[in-house]
Design a protein that fits this description.
The chain has about 775 residues and is an all-alpha fold. The protein has 46 helices and no strands.
Amino acid sequence: MADGLLIQDFEVFKGAMLEDNLTLQIDIVKRLQMLAKALGERATREELLPFIEQNIELHDEILFNLSEQLEHFMPLVGGYQHAGVLFDILAKLCATDELLVRERAVETLKIFAAELSDDLLEELLFPVVRRLFNEEWFTSKCSALMLFSTCYPRLGDQKKEELRNRFRTLIQDDSSLVRRAAAFACVDFFHCLEIDYVREEFIPILCDIAQDPLDTVRSITIDVALSLTDKLSEVEMNESVFKIIEQASDDPSWKSRYRLAINIAEIQRKIYYSKYRDRLISVFQKLSQDIEAAVRTVAASSVFNFSQSLRDSYIKQPQFDTTFEIVFEKSVMPVIRRLFTDDADDVRLMLSSNILSLGTILTECCFKKNMIPVLLEALEKEQSMVVQANYLQGLSNISRDVDLKESLDTIKAAIRSVLVKSQTNWRSRRSVLMTFVDLAKFCNSDYFSANFKLYYATLLGDSVCAVRRCACLILPLLAKQYGIKWVAENLIPYYAMFTRDARYLYRYVPLFGISELLNPTLSKENVSYLGGFEKLIEGNGRPSNRLAVVALAKIDKYCHEIDKQLEQDVYKDMLFLRTEVEYSDNDSVPIYFEKSLEEIREKYKDIHTYSIEEIDFDQSRWTYIQGILYLIHQNFLEIVKTLNGDVTENIQIRAIFTLGQIYDFITCLKKELSESWVQQALGQLSEEQLKRIDSEILKKMSIDHEDMDIIDTSLMDHVALPTSILKELPIIDEDVTNQSKITKNQIEVILEKKCPETSLDNMSECDELMENVDKDILN
C-alpha cells in the first residue's frame, strides 16, 4: 500500500473490527467494497481478506453482512485464479452456528459456482464441500448438504460417486439436524441424479427418511416423494412413492399428516394415473376428518386445487373413465359438506375462501346443483362474519350463466349481517364493496337501487378511510355494468353530499370519486378515449354506426361547453396554482388495499372503462365518455370550485389537483376529436342535424344547471348511522322513496331512546353521537 491515506483507512478498519462497537462494525463492513476498491486487488487478497479470515469470530449480524459483501469480491481480488482466500472465508462462515449466516454464505457460494467453469468448480468449490461434510460439527455438514445439488451435475464420475456415498452416510447421521437437512437436500439432489442411481441407491433412502424417529424429519418425506414422481414409472411409484404417501396419512405425528395435506393437490397433479385416483381420494377424505384441526384446515384450503388436479387427471388419461363430475359429487362433495359444518372456525374459513372457485371447473348444471345450496346455507346460518364475507367475495367466481336471482334476498341479508357484525373488522366491510361489483352481474339496476344502493352509500361514509377509498374505486366498475347515466342519477348525489360534510377527511370523497371516474385505478389501459367509436364507425351498415356518429357530435359539443366553463376566472386561477403547489399523485391506494390490490386488478382486468358497446346507445344509457362530460359540466366543476374554497388547505390543494385531471382529460379528448377520422365522421351529419344536436345539449345543460347548487343533505340520514342503531332497524323492502321516510322516523325514535337531546336535525350532535357510540358508520 503506497498511499498513506489508504494505510490510515485500513488501520481504521482493523481498529473498528477489533473494537466492541456493533453499530460501527456493521457500518464499516457494509463499506467493505469501497475499501477493497481503494486498496487494489493485491492488497485486498494479501492483507484485507487474510485479516478478516483471522478475525472471523464476530457478531452474527456482522457475519451476515460480510457474506453479502463477499458476493461482490470476485473482481476485487483479481478473478477466480486468486479466489482461494474468498472460498476459505466462506467455508468458515458456512460453519457458524447462526442459520441465517450459513444460508447467506451458501447462497454466495452458489452465485460463484454459476460463473465457474466445470474445472474451476472442481478445483475451488468441491474442496470446500468436502471440507464441510468431513467436519464433526453439525453446522458444517448441513451447509455441505445445501451445496450437493450445485456441485454434483458438473463433477467427474469419481467425485460424483464420493458425493453419493457421503450423502447416504449423512442421511443416517447421529444428529437429527443433519438428517433433517439431508432430507431437505434430497428434493434438489434427486433431480440431479441419474435415474439408475435413483432406483438402485436412493429409493431405500426414502424409506429411511419415512421411518426416522424424529417427526420433523419424517414430515419431509412427502416433499422427497414428490421429487421422485418425475423419475419413476407408474408401476415403480406403487412400492415407493405411493406407499410413503399412505403411511404418512396414518402417521402418529400430526406434522407428517399436515405436510401431506399441504401437498395433496400437487400429489394428485403429478400422480394422475387412473389406478391411483380412488386411493388418493381416500387419503384426501381421511385428511378432511383428521383429529387435528390444523390438518383439516389445510385440507379445506386444498379443496379447489385437489378438485382441479382430479379433473385434469381425466384429461391426461382420456382412455379411462371421464366422468369427473360424477366422481366429484360422490367423493368430494361429502368432504365439502363435512368441512362446511366443522366446529373449528379456521376450517370453515379456509373452505369458504376457495370452494366457490369450483365454478371455473364445474359445468353450470353441476355447480348449481351442488354448490349453490352450500352457498345459500352458509349465508343464512354461518355465525362467523369473516366466513360470511369470504363467501360473498367468492361470488366473483360464479358464472353469469348461473341464475342467482332467487338467491339475491339471501345475499342481501348476509351483506347486512356482515355490516352489522364488522364493527372491529373494516376489511370485511371493504370486501362487501367488491361484492357489489360481482352482484351487478346477477341483478338489474332497479334491484340494485332498491336493495344495495343505500349499503353502498353507507360504506362511502365509513369511518375507515380505506373503506371509503374502496367505494370510490368501484365506481367506474358499477358505471360499466349499469351505465354512467345510472351512476349520475343514483350515486353521484351521495358524492356531492360530502362536499358539505363537517369532517374534513370526508370532503375528500367526492374528489376521489371524480379522479376514479376519469382515471380508473382498477382498469388502467393505454388506449384512446375514442378508439371504440372508431371501430364502430368503420363497421358500415350496422345500426350503431349512425348512433356512434351522433354520440361523437354530442361529445364535441360538450367539450366546447366545458371549454367555456374553464375560461371562468375561478378555474383559470386554480389551473395557474396547479403549477405552483406541490401535490403527489399518490392516494396511498396500495397501502389501503395491502397485498390485495394486484389481485383485484387482475380480477377486473377485462373491464375496459372507455370501451363502447352497442347497449351504450340505448335511450336509458349514455356512452361512458358522454356521461363523464355531462358530469364534468353539471357536477364536477362545481364540486372542485366549492372545495377549492374549503377552510382546510389540503382539501384546497386536492381540488386544484382534481381540476388539473379534468383539464388534462378534456385536452386529450379535444386532441382526439381533431383527428381526421372524427372530422370525416361528423361530416356525415347535415347542418340541420348538428344544430338540432347543439340545441338538445344546450337545453339539457341549462335545465339541469338550474338545480346545481341544491345538494340533498337529507341523504346524510342514510349514511351517518352508528352500528348500534343499524342493529335495531328492521330490513325494509318497500319502495326506495317510501323507505327514506320510514327509515328516518325509525331512526329518530331510536335516537330519542339513546340520547334524548340529539336529533337528526342537529347534525353536529349526531356526529358526536356517531363518534362516541360507535366508530363504524353503517346503514
